[in-house]
Design brief:
alpha/beta; two-stranded antiparallel sheet; disordered C terminus; single chain
């Protein structure tokens, strides 16, 4: 955590943003057209996400108007578009469904209050510059969480797609069980409407990604509903939107209700940060742009705090809208502001027809959204590449399926941190030996390359931190490698890949030096960085180690170590690994080793 200073605070909240200078006469038309494309996408999406969150449709549209404007102004991504997202909507519903019936006035007030609380939580993270901590949370957490959210969302829309009205709430198994119990209420027309909207999206997206597939699917559902007389057949319809423009006002919730909302607010805020930072960073890297995670957190927090006072619920970065924004030629964050304005204009045109939208048609769209939320390619990649990441993915997913969805976040974060600590406490240690490549000799892993080693001298490389949590593992690896090569009492430890060292790590190095000298050998350290030397000096390691045992590169360490090995052993050695072996006695009939090419840092 980094304590903020006054200058940073002024820069973070200044009304004059750095990206303003990128707005020109040439960028404004491109941003306006990209904003129109985004508005066409988010119009049906906003309704769908509000339904997922358990809110009336207008709240998803209000969120798509308010959050992108604030996040664009105070964020740092040039291309990311914020607004309602599937994951946050699912967490919102999971957090509030047990506290109040979805869609009721109390539920809505809870949702707006939770949004403000989530924004305040994010604001603290941004002010104290905790953006870098997001990198410590495994990507597998979000993959597992979103997959669990997708299954929960699909289960929640199963009844609507079949025309079966059930009580809301509960996990995946409970929701499916409720549908099965009420199967007698199944309406074939509802299934037709859901299937038609779902099929429309699939077909349109195969034809062109630039077409407004969600909007076209909604129109198809409305058309079929009107032709089939869905309203007269008992199919549920959406109610009219009471107001096209969100109203300013503080949510009405008693102080006694705030503790119950706090866990959900933290979950929503955390998911929002994971989404926004990961999406923003991905697009910044792709476009080779500067990205400040802490400033992005500030932008996201302000967008949610303001949203709660304007009848909008929590939002975050949207990958779909951001990708479409980039493909549509957006140049600056002004495109997100244009999208909000275009959405208001489109809403004025379609608002009178909202009560003609069959709920089963929207259920089909939401089921498609849920299906697309599962990243099967990411899951396959994780399963194939890392056992620990697969475990994190599995635990997060199962927690979301078998318990409350917000518990998946906690399980995922904890398991991710446990995996990080395990990796930190088990740094890689390899025995090295020379190998010649392109006329140059290099040190490489002896086991991996099947290389011979000097019978009297071992060269080890430590990649990772040497601290209290890793000393037991490192010492165990030292003893294991010693058992494989008995007689190597002159040792070199390369600390080029050292991440961190503390007093426990320094103590282990001094113990290793003592053991080597007790067997008639010595211990050398390769420390190429001055910062590491200063850290070792601060831990009084030079009270034990001579300065001549600390070397800035491997060539000097090898030269010093070879001079200490026994000449008697060298007389019978036919390996002759190093050019320094030329100065040692050699067996009869064995010519001196061919010197390695002379170059800077060679040995």
């Amino acid at each position: 955590m980094i304590m903020p200073n006054r200058r940073q605070m002024l820069e973070n909240f200044s009304l004059r943003r750095p990206w303003f200078s990128h707005v020109t006469r040439e960028t404004i038309p491109a941003d306006a057209m990209a904003g129109l494309t985004n508005a066409a996408i988010v119009l049906p999406q906003g309704v769908a996400f509000a339904v997922i969150a358990g809110l009336p449709p207008e709240y998803g549209l209000y969120t798509a108007m308010i959050t992108p404007v604030i996040a664009a102004i105070w964020g740092t991504s040039m291309i990311m578009v914020s607004g309602p997202t599937t994951a946050i909507s699912a967490v919102m519903f999971a957090a509030l469904a047990e506290l109040a019936p979805p869609g009721t006035p109390l539920y809505i007030q809870f949702a707006l209050t939770l949004t403000i609380m989530a924004g305040l939580f994010q604001l603290l993270a941004g002010v104290f510059r905790l953006g870098g901590m997001i990198s410590f949370i495994s990507h597998s957490v979000m993959v597992g969480f979103t997959a669990a959210a997708a299954i929960l969302i699909g289960a929640s829309q199963l009844g609507g797609a079949l025309g079966i009205h059930t009580e809301s709430g509960g996990g995946v198994i409970e929701r499916v069980a409720k549908v099965v119990e009420n199967w007698s209420a199944f309406q074939p027309l509802a299934l037709l409407l859901a299937a038609s909207s779902l099929a429309t999206i699939v077909v349109v997206q195969k034809l062109s990604r630039k077409l407004p597939a969600y909007l076209m699917a909604l129109l198809v559902g409305v058309a079929i509903g009107e032709l089939a007389g869905a309203r007269d057949a008992g199919i549920e319809m959406f109610e009219k939107i009471p107001s096209l423009v969100p109203q300013l006002g503080a949510p009405s919730v008693s102080l006694a209700d705030l503790p119950a909302l706090l866990p959900g607010a933290i979950s929503v805020g955390f998911v929002g940060l994971l989404e926004a930072v990961s999406i923003g960073r991905a697009f910044a890297m792709r476009r080779q742009e500067r990205y400040d995670a802490n400033q992005e957190i500030i932008g996201q927090s302000l967008s949610n705090i303001v949203a709660g006072f304007f009848q909008a619920y929590a939002g975050s970065g949207s990958f779909t809208r951001s990708a479409m924004n980039a493909e549509s030629g957006a140049k600056t964050p002004l495109s997100a502001i244009f999208a909000a304005l275009w959405l208001l204009g489109l809403l004025c045109l379609v608002a009178p027809f909202v009560d003609h939208i069959p709920k089963p048609a929207m259920a089909g769209i939401i089921i498609f959204v849920a299906w697309r939320l599962i990243s099967f390619s990411e899951i396959r990649h994780i399963v194939r590449s890392s056992r620990s990441e697969t475990t994190i993915l599995f635990l997060t997913f199962m927690a979301g399926i078998t318990t409350e969805l917000e518990n998946a976040i906690l399980v995922g974060v904890v398991s991710s941190l446990v995996a990080f600590l395990h990796r930190s406490s088990h740094p890689h240690i390899a025995a090295l030996s020379p190998i010649e490549r392109n006329g140059k000799r290099q040190l490489r892993g002896a086991k991996f390359h099947n290389l011979e080693q000097c019978p009297q001298m071992s060269i080890l490389r430590l990649d990772g931190p040497l601290f209290f949590g890793s000393v037991d593992h490192v010492e165990g690896e030292f003893r294991r490698l010693e058992a494989l090569s008995d007689g190597q009492n002159v040792k070199i430890l390369v600390l080029k890949g050292l991440g961190k060292i503390d007093l426990s790590g320094a103590g282990l190095l001094m113990d290793e030096l003592d053991k080597a000298r007790r067997t008639g050998g010595d211990y050398h350290l390769v420390v190429p960085f001055k910062e590491t030397v200063d850290a070792l000096e601060g831990m009084n390691i030079f009270d034990t180690f001579d300065r001549r045992n600390i070397h800035p590169d491997k060539s000097q360490a090898i030269k010093a170590a070879v001079s200490q090995v026994s000449n008697d052993v060298c007389r019978n050695c036919t390996i002759r690994l190093f050019r320094e072996c030329d100065g040692k006695p050699s067996p009869e009939g064995v010519s001196p080793s061919k010197p390695a090419p002379q170059r800077s840092g060679s040995w």
